[in-house]
Amino acid sequence: MPMSLSALPTHAPVADDFEQVNRIIHERLASGVTLIETIGHYIVDSGGKRVRPLLVLLAARALGYEGDRHTLLAALIEFMHTSTLLHDDVVDESSLRRGKATANDTWGNAPSILVGDFLYSRSFEMMVDVGSMPIMAVLSHATSTIAEGEVLQLTNIGNADISEDDYYRTIRGKTAMLFEASAHTGAMLTSAPEAHKEALRVFGQELGMAFQLIDDYLDYAGNAAEMGKNVGDDLAEGKPTLPLLHAMQKGNAEEAALIRQAIEKGDGMDHLETILRIVRDTGALDYTRQQANDRAQRALEALAIIPDSPFKDSLSLLARQAVERSV
To answer: Record's PANTHER family (predicted)?
Structure first.
């Protein structure tokens, strides 16, 4: 693990575990096809805090796990996540992620999709090595739910009539599900009480919801240089995220009509400054951040029954940081 990560308070209690995860990731990227290794290393080494594998490690250690399968589980979770990033950037026609050119922008769509498929397939090979059918069942279900969430988001592009419930269903699938599966499967490695494993499952789900809500908030309130992507990307794609849904509900007829047009016609970037003002003035940003805060609080409440430890402290810190971040 890079020193910048191992020094973070959230990562420090499992720094040695994370070093092993990093070794496994690079070992399992090995392929006789050079392009797979090139793109694979490009994307997994492109930054990010690897929150999902971190959840695996912290959940397992928080419940007293002393074996070594949690590092393999954490590595395969990162492969699953990385494969979705490769696919998402193709679907979204993204050219920038974490301040770097996306793989599809550099090598093209076809290689990105196929290398994403390789990483997904490799993650299932690693699941077999973990050797737990219950864990495989959870992760297999998670992959289906994530795919459903991505398709649901795709079908909702340009649809200004979705409800907040529709929005939450989408982000639970496409984002929160892998957070949930990460914390849950890490806990499942242990012999802890079922109530403790369930608490960590709920923690992961609520953390993932808070994380995505802040992502959607930052698309209208963030700084492009800090985020490593462009402000208004969701608007440009016609994605009806919570800030827009709330702004339509609270704005006047003219404001609501402009946002509806932006979603339906995909011409939001032509009216970006006006829409940013509407989103601010209607309280949509404050509302979205409050929903994220509520989810983070639920995550913290779920941890209440988990025994105190440095690992639990890191989980609590993750929940707080999820809603305080600017990137």
So the answer is: ALL TRANS-POLYPRENYL-DIPHOSPHATE SYNTHASE PDSS1, GERANYLGERANYL PYROPHOSPHATE SYNTHASE
How many structural domains comprise the chain? 1
- Say which CATH number the domain at 283 has: 1.10.600.10
Note whether residue 168 is domain-resident. Answer: yes
- Per-residue pLDDT, averaged over 138-160, amounts to 94
Instruction: Determine the structural domain holding residue 136 and report its residue range.
Output: 3-317
The 10 Å Cβ neighbour count of residue 7 is 11
Residue type at 132? S
Q: Is 123 within a domain?
A: yes
Asked whether residue 292 is domain-assigned, the answer is yes
Mean pLDDT of 175-198: 98
For residue 221, the model assigns a pLDDT of 87
Say if residues 103 and 43 touch (Cβ distance below 8 Å).
Answer: yes
Average pLDDT over every residue of 104-108: 84
Counting every residue written for the chain, the total comes to 327
**Euclidean distance between CA atoms 173 and 6, whole angstroms:** 30
- At which residue do the structure tokens 């299932």 appear? 124
Entry pTM: 0.92
Q: How far apart are CA 323 and CA 224, in angstroms?
A: 18
Token reading at 83: 């494969």
Tokens describing residue 40 = 């694979």
Give the C-alpha separation, 111 to 89, whole Å: 12
- Positive/negative CA dihedral, 309, 311, 317, 323: negative
